[in-house]
Amino acid sequence: TPIHMFLNSAKPTIVIAGAGFGGLRAALDLNNFFKKEPALAQKYNFYLIDQNDHHLYVPAIYEIATTIHDDAKVMKLKEAGVLPLEKIFPPAGPLKFHQAKITKIDVANNKIILNDHITLKYAYLIVGLGSATNFYNIPGLKENALTLGNLNSAIKIRSALEKKFCKDLKTKKIIKIVIGGGGVTGVELAGELVGYIKKLNKKYQTKIKLHLTIIEGQKDILPGFDAKMVSWAKKRLSQLGVNIVTGDLIEEIRFKSALTKSGGRFDFDVLVWSGGIKPNPIIETLPFEHDKRGRIAVQENFCPVFRGGNKLCSNIFIIGDNCCHLRHQTLPQTAQMAIDQGQHIARLIWAGIKKKPLPKYHPIHNSYILPIGGKFALADLGAIKGKGFLVWILKELVFLDYLISILPLPQALAHWFKAIRLFIKND
Question: What is the CA radius of gyration of the chain?
Fold first, then answer.
């Protein structure tokens, strides 16, 4: 249903800005609530707004960046890594998806303005617009580095790597790759790139060597992770031949070299930056309290705090990468936490609509699985920690479980088998 049909409607409108993990979960849960009470659904307009027509499964993005062209063309990669929103939300349901980019959120007048010249008034707004790459104003970095944040950037990385590999096929014996940032993205990509170069050597029947370096500004890779997990990750990367430099910051990119604060110089053929994120630029324009990383300060119910006081904006909810939590310790910016927040906000809005007591938020334990090259992964599930092939299998089952949570079972299984068949070639 076209969105303009509702612009003059007297019905209150619920808008979810962003189809990332948190926004999608909130949309699915509210959609299910309304399906159970069709009469109530008729009293509300309910929209999900995103500039893309799909939901990206971010944990698979490093796989997309390291799948050689012979294994998959661009469209095949897209089919494996993204989920069309029209499959998740059939047109007949309560929720309507509208593809557009949000250019402004007018908090004073409860409106959002879209790049297709539509202005939409909201009664409730959930903001889960995700993040952008933070280059920290490092000279030469933005101009020379590739990033890994969405489908297009992943495809750009794999194209750049194979193009560079082919260009130097007859003249070089070593391809040098530098990854700026030793967090999850940098570590996952480093592990997978080792196998990727091996596949290219096999494809072109050559023996070009890989010199891969991770540069991390903190005292160790994977900042904030359990010490045992960090130790296992370092050992695994060392086995794969990855060089790790920690406690040193990239200060400048000059003439195909990364220059660091300590005076180090790291030459590269390809540079990938995974050293930082910041909230979506729209977040900076909102009249709320922000932390030093640009995220919006929220209270117990994820309502933002206006600048200059403790007054809450009670009909806006900020989740995922866009928020920092005041009552609890800062919540990790992970898919798992965003999903948890999306579920809570859906229950919160539904309780408000039904005029029932508002639920309290209790953050879940942030468990994780971290793949590092081949059929190998690490897991921290709280009391249980593990590594190896069985954990890698668990990672694939977690992917299936997520698909089942957002798609009908037959579609979830079909998508999972398609993706597994493709990505297992990387391993």
Answer: 22
Distance CA(345)–CA(319), nearest Å, equals: 9
Element containing residue 99 per DSSP (H, E): strand 96-99
Q: How far apart are CA 275 and CA 370, in angstroms?
A: 17
Which amino acid is located at 189 in the chain? L
Q: Which of 278, 271, 313 is nearest to 105 (CA)?
A: 313
Among positive and negative, which fits the CA dihedral 207, 208, 211, 212?
Answer: negative
- Classify strands 270-273 and 265-267 as parallel, antiparallel or unpaired: unpaired
Note whether 359 and 348 are within 8 A (CB). yes
User: What is the 8-class DSSP label of residue 425?
Assistant: G
Residue 147: in which H helix or E strand, if any? strand 146-147
Q: Is 385 helix (H, G, I), strand (E, B) or coil?
A: strand
Residues 6+ apart with CB under 8 A from 121: 13, 109, 110, 111
Give the residue carrying structure tokens 């480093």.
190
Separation CA 130–CA 364 (nearest Å): 20
> Where is 257: in which H helix or E strand?
strand 257-260
Query: 286 near 195, Cβ under 8 Å?
Result: no
Mean pLDDT by 10 residues, the chain (427 residues): 63 96 98 95 94 92 85 76 90 90 96 92 96 95 94 90 84 91 96 93 90 97 94 98 98 96 97 93 95 90 88 94 79 90 97 94 89 95 94 96 96 93 80
The amino acid at 315:
N
| Three-state DSSP state, 31 | helix
Rounded-to-integer distance, Cα 422 and Cα 401, Å:
18
Q: pTM of the predicted model, to two decimals?
A: 0.93
Helix (H, G, I), strand (E, B) or coil at 336: helix
